[in-house]
Amino acid sequence: MDLLRFTTSGSVDDGKSTLIGRLLYDSESIFIDQLQALQRASKHRGSEQLDLALITDGLRAEREQGITIDVAYKYFSTAKRKFIIADTPGHIQYTRNMVTGASTANLAIILVDARQGVVEQTLRHTIIATMLQIPHLVLCINKMDLVQYSEDRFYEIVHAYQEAIKKLQVKDVYYIPISALHGDNVVYKSDRMPWYTGKPLLTYLEEVPIALDINQDIARFPVQYVIRPQEDAYHDYRGYAGKIISGAFHEGQAVSVWPSGWQSTIDRIEYAQQAIASARAPQSVVILLKDDLDISRGDMITPADQPPTLTQDVVATICWMDSTPLKTGDKLLLQHGPAVVRCVVKHIAYKININSLSQEDAGGSLQLNDVARVHIRTAKPIAIDPYAVNRANGSAILINETSFNTVGACLIEEA
Amino acid sequence: MSRHPYDFDYLDYLESEAIHILREVAGQFERPALLFSGGKDSITLVHLALKAFRPGKFPFPLVHIDTGHNFPEVLQFRDALIDRIGERLIVRKVEDTIKQKNLEPPKGKLASRNFLQAYTLLDTIEEFEFDACIGGARRDEEKARAKERIFSVRNEFGEWDPRLQRPELWNIYNGKIHKGENVRVFPISNWTELDVWHYILRENIALPAIYYAHTRKCLVYEGQLVAVSPHIQIEPDDVIVEKTVRFRTVGDMNCTAAIESQARTTEEIIQEILQSKISERGATRIDDKFSEAAMEDRKKAGYF
Ligand SMILES: Nc1nc2c(ncn2[C@@H]2O[C@H](COP(=O)(O)OP(=O)(O)O)[C@@H](O)[C@H]2O)c(=O)[nH]1
User: Fold this and answer.
1) Most buried in the list A53, A399, B109, B204, measured by CB within 10 Å?
2) Mean pLDDT confidence for A191-199
């Protein structure tokens, strides 16, 4: 049993809460007392039917009160997989939340109301999902009950979407006609749409292959912490503790250390104090090298024959997440895994309109929720890969030097 | 569905994520601490810390905020665990806070000290200048926690201020803070109640005996079973029963309800939890009404 993380997005009232509720309910992921609470709450609202949307009403209550809307995480599992849902609200001003939810996702569910078809938000969510390189997309065409479960309407929307995303580099889209309210094609295959030969949503979520969502070819090991026991028995022990973020390492492998560029060989890989011959992302391990080098937190170990790009000049797509605008020349901290360096924004090349992907003049500054292409100069070299090649080593965050808030998401394009 | 050779088990994924978070704490903070309640979630954290830092020592002490109303089994377990792992334990007592601050000790039948824990914790944070406190809270415990960050910044008063909450992207944790602020860190945020039990089973982690079914004298109070102990007042017309029970959390003896159960092993507990889910579509079993997930660990409420 493995683990899949997904996000859900759609415009308000497309049925996102109902869909999540339906998934949890029909997959038998709800506890009896939760169900009773739900029955009471539904009655309270004057509904005889269970209002499945109430399962996620934490977020809903907030929305109604107009306070912080954010990313909420939900969990369920089936015999095949554990699922983590990052539920983000779909308003235009919440690009920041969507980017946050999407950053760890294997898959994005985008909801469309069958009556309305593809709208601006549909494209925006697709663009963000694609920008964040979410490997799998599912377009759920909801409320099929309100269009008489019409095959023609379904394909009309599918074709309109395919036309709209032609210019985007969308990788893998799966289309499912559903009714979240009635449960058609969510967990169970619908008898009311015999013309649909694909999988119901949950089956797809259980079966979509995800092992290759992590780059398995390029090995990267950022050092988080150095283990140096004070006991005599471990006098010469110097273990580099960290998580393999991509690829695999093995005993005896020739490696380089960055930013120094030093060379060495892996003496041993340990997991829970046992030596293991090899280890693969996303395992957390301890690596010991043959040579006694001065390696510390923030350094990166890679295979000698797969060097990262070592650079101080980074071109990146950033999403600005702070209410104080970003201006050319601003100094910030850039955190790339455990490495933190000072940096300056040299140039804001252009803003990216996330409804159309068109490039717009930024006029030297970015507002909250703006997405832009920028040039950044770091105070020290960092060891990176392009985000498109290796999501795990092409991502970074920007931190305000005085408030210490996280103010930007940074997707490294090239160096 | 064929398995890919690189498929990664979900428990391995959760474990690796938690170890990564613990090591980020070690790397980013000067004076971290692990809040230890003696409950299964904090025992799981200790197990994860052993995997994260051995053969080295933990880069943080364990801190127990003691209400004085503990189950004796839990204190014995705590001391035996500390002996076995050889790490530092700091105990601070709510009792002392009550004396020092001249607080009114709670009265009444069950006289809970839970809410006072927060004071003792803040004093302890100040005393040792802790800049990060690792806790075992999980996002599935209640709706409000569903959007809690893994690194959650608190102001000088230990308060959760929405403006201090930072977007958390990828697996990059920003632990930069000003003097006086501190960060609560939740390495098992993404675990559910069942995940923790499955992990305890897989890793063969020992727990205090009160987690498993045993016979015990209980007071029936507002439909709940409360362990008979010196910490509660028994009145003449109280109903005392002897039942086979277990506890789902290790809160104070006087406000942690026991549940009737025959589950004497971890496997049996997992079976019980699974049965408390809806067993068939639409068919609910009202008589069997309990849920592990919905139950908030009161101890943690005091902490976090
Ligand atoms: N007829 C119909 N109504 C639906 C369906 N899914 C959701 N709804 C209704 O659409 C409204 C908005 O749904 P909700 O889940 O709250 O949408 P959200 O804003 O995206 O979370 C509610 O009244 C739902 O009952 C569906 O498949 N068919």
Assistant:
1) A399
2) 97
Q: Is B5 on the interface with A (CB under 8 A)?
A: yes
Task: Give the N- to C-terminal CA distance of chain A in Å, as an integer.
Answer: 38
pLDDT of residue A413 exceeding 70, the answer is yes
- Collapsing DSSP states into helix, strand and coil, what is residue A15? coil
Of A134, A219, A194, A210, which is closest to residue A168 (Cα–Cα)? A134
Here the ipTM equals: 0.94
pLDDT digits (tens, 9 = 90+) for A268-296: 999 999 999 999 999 999 999 999 999 99
Ligand 1 surroundings by CB, under 6 angstroms? A 10, 12-18, 53, 142-143, 145-146, 179-181
Q: Is the pLDDT of residue B42 over 70?
A: yes
**Distance separating alpha carbons of residues B140 and A261, to the nearest angstrom:** 44
- The type of residue at B176 is K
Q: Mean pLDDT across the stretch B108-122?
A: 75
Quick one: DSSP state of residue A67? -
The beta-carbon neighbor of B6 closest among A30, A211, A224 is A211
Reported as a single tens digit per residue, the pLDDT across A283-331 is: 999 999 999 999 999 999 999 999 999 999 999 999 999 999 999 999 9
- Quote the CA–CA distance of A119 and A5 in Å, as a whole number: 25
| Parallel/antiparallel/unpaired status of strands A107-113 and A173-177 | unpaired
Residues A282 and A324 sit within 8 Å (Cβ to Cβ): no
Nearest CA to A207 among A176, A180, A243, A181? Answer: A176
Cα–Cα distance for residue pair A25/A31, rounded to 1 Å: 9
Name the nearest CA neighbour of B87 among B55, B61, B63, B65.
Answer: B61
Mean pLDDT along residues A224-241:
93
Partner residues linked to A133 by β-bridges: none
Burial A12-41 (b: 16+ CB within 10 A, else e): eebbbbbbbbbbbbbbbbbbbbbbebbbee
Strands (E), A131-172: 136-142
Q: Give CA separation, A54 vs A40, A196, A227, in Å.
A: 11, 29, 48
Beta bridge partners of B40: none
Mean pLDDT of B227-255: 84
pLDDT band at B297 (very low <50, low <70, confident <90, very high): very low
Interface test with B, best of A7, A26, A32, A245 (most B CBs within 10 A): A32
- Average pLDDT over chain B reads 83
CB contact under 8 A, A32 and B6: no
Which is nearest to B251 in space by CA: B66, B46, B79, B98? B66
Three-state DSSP class for A280? strand
Instruction: In whole angstroms, give the CA distance from residue A50 to residue A39.
Output: 6
At B50, the amino acid letter reads L
Q: What is the pLDDT of residues A345-382, one digit of tens each?
A: 999 999 999 888 899 999 999 999 899 999 999 999 99
**Dist CA B135 CA B43 (whole Å):** 11
Average pLDDT over chain A reads 91
Report the number of secondary-structure helices (H) and strands (E) in chain A.
7, 24
Q: First vs last Cα of chain B: how many Å apart?
A: 42
User: What is the CB neighbour count within 10 angstroms for residue A220?
Assistant: 27
Contacts of A342 (CB under 8 A, 6+ apart): A331, A332, A333, A334, A378, A379, A401
Residue located via tokens 């364990």 = B62
From chain A, pick out residues whose CB is under 8 angstroms from the CB of B176.
333, 399, 404
Q: What is the pLDDT of residue B286?
A: 24
Backbone phi, psi, residue A307, to 5°: -70, 145
- Gap between the Cα atoms of A247 and A285, Å rounded: 13
- What the block records as the tokens of A285 is 């391990």
Kindly provide the residue ranges of all beta strands, DSSP E only, lying in A16-133, ordered along the sequence.
72-77, 81-87, 107-113
CB B246 within 8 A of CB B212: yes
For residues A371 and A358, what is the distance between their CA atoms, to the nearest angstrom? 11
Distance CA A284, CA A271 (A): 7
